[in-house]
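Schema walk-through. Below, the input block comes first and the output block second. Nothing else is stored per chain. Lengths vary across the set, and this one has 125 residues.
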Amino acid sequence: MVNHQQSFVRFCVVGVINTLIDFGVFAALFYGAGWGLLVAHVPAFCAAVVNGFIMNKVWTFGDKSAVTGMQFGRFAAVAGIGLLISSAVVAGGSHVMPVLAAKALAVAAALMWNYAGSSRFVFRR
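--- output ---
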């Protein structure tokens, strides 16, 4: 069983991987395809959420139970609130800093909520 300190470190590692996925998809859609800011932000975020669910379930929290729709639904709800937090930060921050800096700030803003929700509500022991 993984303790909270280990799980938080692992959650952060998964977060870095998710951030790379998020930024990659976002950059491709925003800069490459010319999509609007929030229109590109949402699918990028969703791609990272799916990866995050799988990696956090198996590696971060060592949850060996079968994947259920209920568990993914809880994870998606936590992530959805994280999306609202990060969307507000990226939208507001983009007015005062470069878009990618605002995107990085948005990731940091949602980190604590996402960990708390995942460890207490989704993958509780």
